[in-house]
């Protein structure tokens, strides 16, 4: 029961972060929002936070999160990072974040191929 409560709490944190970082969606972005929602459901809350921390901070990602990220596909990762990096407070470093996103993807693909 405690594990379920922790998972629900982590999911709440991720959803809160998403709404804090993601700009209000316009009608043209309904398809992108659907993809975003699909990705959030499939990647564990801890892995989503780890991915965000690697790209926007100096975090590290576990091999299991790399496997999950690669399993979901590059589109999910690109969507997650692009929406966050488009925030006005982060846009000045968007190029850096997109490079870190691509470096993370390359790292995770290499991890997934070795196991």
UniProtKB/TrEMBL annotation:
<protein>
    <recommendedName>
        <fullName>Prolamin-like domain-containing protein</fullName>
    </recommendedName>
</protein>
<keyword id="KW-0732">Signal</keyword>
<dbReference type="Pfam" id="PF05617">
    <property type="entry name" value="Prolamin_like"/>
</dbReference>
<dbReference type="InterPro" id="IPR008502">
    <property type="entry name" value="Prolamin-like"/>
</dbReference>
<feature type="signal peptide">
    <location>
        <begin position="1"/>
        <end position="20"/>
    </location>
</feature>
<feature type="domain" description="Prolamin-like">
    <location>
        <begin position="38"/>
        <end position="109"/>
    </location>
</feature>
């Amino acid at each position: 029961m405690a594990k379920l409560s922790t998972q629900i709490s982590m999911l709440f944190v991720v959803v809160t972060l998403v709404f804090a970082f993601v700009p209000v969606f316009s009608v043209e972005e309904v398809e992108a929002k659907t993809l975003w929602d699909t990705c959030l459901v499939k990647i564990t809350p801890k892995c989503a936070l780890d991915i965000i921390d690697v790209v926007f901070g100096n975090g590290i990602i576990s091999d299991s999160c790399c496997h999950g990220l690669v399993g979901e596909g590059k589109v999910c990762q690109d969507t997650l990072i692009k929406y966050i990096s488009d925030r006005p407070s982060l846009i000045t470093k968007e190029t850096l974040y997109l490079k870190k996103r691509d470096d993370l993807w390359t790292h995770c693909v290499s991890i997934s191929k070795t196991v």
